[in-house]
Every structure is written in structure tokens, then in C-alpha cells.
Structure prediction request, 792 residues.
Amino acid sequence: MKQYSNVIAAYSIMLVLIILVGVFQSWSIALSIFNYCMISAVMTMGANIQWGYAGLINFGIMGYTALGGLAVVLVSVAPVPEAWRVGGFNMMTSLAIITGMIFSIRYILKKIQKSKKRNYLIAAIIFIGLILIKLISGPAIEQIEAVEPAKFGFLGGLGMPVLFSWIVGGFFAAGLAFIVGKVALGLRADYLAIATLLIAEIVVSIIKHEDWLARGVKNVIGLKRPAPYEIDLQTSSWFINLVEKFHSTKLAAINSISEKQDLLNQLVIDASSIYVKLCFAGLFLVVVIILLIITQKALYSPWGRMMRAIRDNEEAASAMGKNIVKQHLFIFILGSAIVGIAGAMMVTNDGLFTPGSYRPMRYTFVIWVMVIVGGTGNNFGAILGGFVVWFLWVQAAPMALFVINLLTAHLSETNELRIHLIESAPYFRFLLVGIGLLLIMRFRPQGILPEKIIKQ
Amino acid sequence: MDFINALIVLLNYTVIPALTYGSQLALGAIFVTLIYGILRFANFATGDMMSFGTMFAVLLTYYFQSKGISFGFLPTALLTIPFAVAMMIFYMLLIDKTVFSYYRIKKSPPVQLAMVSLGVMFVTQAIIRIIIGPTDRRFLDGEKFILKATEFKEMTGLSEGLTIKSTQVITLVVTVVVVSIMFWFLNKTKTGTSMRAYSDNEDLALLSGIDPKRVVMITWIIAGILATIGGILYGLDKSYRPFVYFNNMLPIFAAAIVGGIGNPYGAFFGGYVIAFAEIFLTYAYKRFFVYLLPESLEPNSLMQLLSTDYKFAISFSILVVVLLFRPSGIFEGKKI
Prediction:
């Protein structure tokens, strides 16, 4: 128990902070912060598996998050039959051509010796394939995008339950990670960081601009939810009764019936939003706990020890007969899959998919700050990092506003400096997170909760 | 005649803009590569540092304009360069003293320094947004065009016009001047040689009596000059917006790595490689072919290889291809 005392202390402080937000701001805000903290924690765990266990830098978190989000759209949205009718066949043909290209290139790579002839053959296949795809998919894309552009204009998804898409999101991200890993994992650490960052940008720009796939920057709204809708809750009697029972003392204090009804309506509306968020919180908590158990078990298994050995001394591990390339690829895929799941969770939580919002600042660098601040190589630390940094990121603006108001209280309301500072309060989050990162790197480089190695 | 018209189209819409954009990228890429070669880390605050220097140029331009100081037909921003560079160098040296030097003395691995530069990126971005805000700003004044399309048509009697913006000429001239001075400095002066020695082999350089503090300081000074001038040229040509500058970090990195990171010549050419690839692959060649081909063969599509949405994606794909086949870059990196 004693060895976990600092973990418990850190988590309790975090919980108290969120409860304080609930008391002073509102429970709805506190719960949405909590949910986002949880999503960030899952992303952080994914990045931590790569960085903390194996020392691989993945600055492509943004790409995997976006792919997870894409999975939600492709799995849960109902298909658009009209679009499938006009363009489905051609798109499927293009897909078949791509698959054909990949397999023929693989065949050539296997069968023909390394030579100029082979290179020309591969180049020819790629060139002809691209022209064919452009010819076949071009008109189909135009037709698909013309199908009720304000509402659809894309192929739609499979119409399956949304929870299923979380798993699919993991697989999507894993697939991308496989390709990226094959391409980039041989690179040195800082090259790898830049390469993954740029590949993620490529992925996001494809999602952003291929409107037939997921409407691109036109966004997909009104996604399915694994939780009930607020409107349904507000009209169902069991929920109203529950709220009434919960607030009975408050309601009993009011005498007038109409006032009582008004208050009850207000309470029901508030409670419905809180109820929905609680449902999400429960689901996310289940995911976090499952992942935590798995990653903890993995970290202290022979496999985890091998990963640490590879991280700390590649040559020695290689000399012991460990296949470093294979293990690096495996852990890269594993971590990315977890990030993909988080991406799917986030889009489900928001109920909308906005490819334009995937920016490296928010989805790569902030996540990395979480990993470093929380504690590399420690799963509890990773989750804590997600909580702490997300909390700061969201609450920095109100905190900054409070401090600014305090410091400029003696200035008049119309003082330009004061107005300017109040207007720029949202940007203090960058300052806070940046300084936090610099301080942690300087004075506690192993993070709030450092890696713990249990000796057998 | 049609052939010349076709050439003018190409020149006007691809070559000149690509040269301009390439010069702006090249300055940034040399900045990245110098920091990488001498201080040995990938500086993720690159875009924001360029933005920081440009911010001072923008503010000073506004101040000069309010005082009625102008630079004739040239943009006032050129007058502000020395002051903006001075501020930038001061900021860089301050950051180096408070943040980077600790890790350098401790001989931390490059990855750790890269992570630290993330923190610097956040802080710089915050300072910029708090001081100047996130909005789009134009600070170009003076003469906008050197050659207008209509003037060109009258002059030559061609049906296609050639436009040359003053910012394009300024960019090219300033880049050539700055880069040649820098290469002269690195290759011919004693300090430059000591920098190259430090970059090649730190221990040996220390043994031969090179003062590491001096080398680091001069690196930051050169970096400050390059970052500020690159940023100002980009801002004059397009516009100044902190978010765009942050994003420009990515093609700049691509340029530096494509050219071979650590090699300033490579970075210089890498900038143009990236710029030309981006613009040539996304340009719609329809008008070009209309002039060249007989009427019966006239293309009815835009003749565009990729939509302009994929501009960034192209430079990154080039980078991935280069990393796959020549990980050390086209011009063999890691030496100055």
C-alpha cells in the first residue's frame, strides 16, 4: 500500500479539483472536463506505451485520433443508398485497383531481383494505377458529392452500433501504424518525430479534402450515441420522478404549484445533461480501467521487461536474440491502436466529426506534454498526466481571467491594457502548459509519477 | 507566339511564386539546420520563433507609419528589420540561457532537447498571441507591383500578362544577399570555421581551444537573423498570422530534411525543391496546354495533377520518399 501512497495522493488531489469545479462552476462543466480528461488519458496511455515502454517518439497522435473519429462515421452512420447507387460501383472498383496494385507490387518485389527493370515495373504499375483510379473515381466522386450536398454528399457508413466503431477505430489506427512503422521506424529519434508528424498531416489532409468519404470540412453531425438523448430523458416519466425524488426537500420548500413546476422543469433539463455525461463517464471509465489492467499486466510481464531492455540498450537486447525491429513495430501498432480508440471515443462523446479541427497543437503536442508531465513509463502517471494537463488546458482561461482582474483591479474599466489582457485570457493556456512542461523537464524529468521497476 | 505565351503562363503562375516561396522556406530551413548541426536538436519552436521576430516587425511598422516614417517605394517593414532582429536575438539568447544551456551542459540526449523546445514553442506562442493576438495582419506598404499584367501586355503585345510583385523581387534579392553573406561567413572567416569544426566534432573542437559559449552565441545570432528575415519576407508576401507561421514549421522541416539536415547548402536547395514540387504538382495546366496544343486536342479538364488542398501533403510525401531512399537527404546531411 505504501508504495502506492503518492499515486493515491495525486489522484485524490485531481479528483478534489474536479469536484471543486463542480461546486463553484457547475456539475455539467465538471463532468465534461472529467470525460475529456478520460479521453486524454487513453490517448496518453497509447503514447506512453510507445515512448515510455519502448522509447519510440510518435508525433503522429493527431493522425490516429482522426482515423478513430473517421471510424465512428464509417461504422455508425446510416448508409446513403442514393450515393451508393450513383458512385458505389466505381468507388469499389477503385478500391479493388488499389488492392491489386499493392499485391502486384508485393509480388514483383518478391519474385524479381533488385534491378533497374524492377524499379521501372513498379513505377509503371503505380503510374497506370493512379491514372485508372483518377479516371474511374473522378466522375463517381462528383456524382456522390452531388447527392443532397447540404445533408449527405458522401457514401455514409454501415449503420452499425456506435460502440463497435471504437474497436474499428483501433484497427484503423493499427493499420496506419503498420504502414508508418514499416516506413519510418528505422529512423533516428528526432527524424522519427518529424516523419510521424508529417505523415499524420497527410492523413488529416486526406480526410479533410475527400468529401465523398466523410464530408470533409463540411463535418458530419448528429452521430449515434451509446447513451440516451437529453430530449428523450426530459419526456420520460421515470427520469422526472427520479429528479423529483432527488430534489424533494428543495421542491417541498416551494408552495406555489406553478413555480414548483418551473423549478422542476429546470432541474430536469440540468439533470438530463448530467445524466448523459455520467453515462459517457461510466463507459469511458470502463475503457480506461480495462486498458489500465492490460497495460499494467503487460508492463510487468516478461514482454514488458524485454521492451524496457530494448529501450535501455538496443545492442545488448539484440545480442540476447530479441528481434528489435519486430518488437518496435508491434509496440508502435499497439500504442497507435489505443490512440485510435481514444479518437473514436472523443467523436462519440462530441456527437460530431469535424476534420478541420484536427490540428497538431491540440492533438499531438498537448498529448505529449501529458505524457511527459504525468510520468513516462508509468501507466498511472500517464492517466494522471492526461487529467492534470487537460484540466489546466481547460481551466487556464478562467484562472487567467481571475488573476488579470485581481492585478488590474486598480485600473479603470476602459483602460486599454486591461481590456487587451482580458481579451487575450484564452491564450494563457499555452503559457501555463508551456511553463509547466519546462519546469517538469528541468526539475522532475521523469514526470510526476516516475517509472517504477519492480524487482523480482 | 503561342509558345511564348505558354511560357509566360508557366512563369507567371508557377516559377516566380515557387522561387519566392522557396526562398522563404530556404531561410527557415537553414535556421533549422544550423540549430540541428551545431546545437544538435530538432527545434520544434522554429515556426513560432520566426513568428516572434515578425511580430516585432509588424508592430514597428505600425509605429513608424504612425510617426510618418516611410521607406519610399519600398515597404516600411524593411526598415524595421534591424530592430526586429535585435529583439529576436535577445529573446533567443534569453531562452538559451534560461532553458537550453542547462541541458547542453548536462549533455542530455537530443530527444530531450527537442521536448524542451516543445515547451519553448508553447511559451512563445502564448507570448505572441497575448501581445499581438491571433488575427490576420497585412503590413505591406509602398509600391505593390513592379510589373503589372496590363503593362506587360502593352509592352510586348502578347496576350498573356506577366505580373511581378515587389515582394517577390524583394524576397529574392534579400535571400540572395543574406544567404551569400552567411555562406561567406561560415566558409571564409575564422569564427565560421570554428563553428563548422564544433559541428563536425565537438570534443576535437574543444581540444583545439574553440570557445563553445561563443560558438553557441554566434549560432543563435545567425539563427535570429535568418528566422526574422525569413518570417518578415513571408509576412510581406502573404500576410502575418501566428497560426500560419506555426504550421509553416512543417514544410520547413521537410525542406531541411530533404536537403540533408545539418547541411546548410542542402537546406537552401531543399526549400526550393519543396516549393517547386508543391506548386508544379498542384497547378492547373489547362491554359498552358491550350496555347501549346492544336485546337482539336484542347484539354477539357483542368489538367491538374492534385487539388491545391494537397499542397502541404505533397511536401510531406516528398519527405517520406526521401527518408525511405536517402535517409541522410539529397545532399548528404550532418556536416556544415
User: Anything to note?
Assistant: The radius of gyration of chain B is 21 Å.
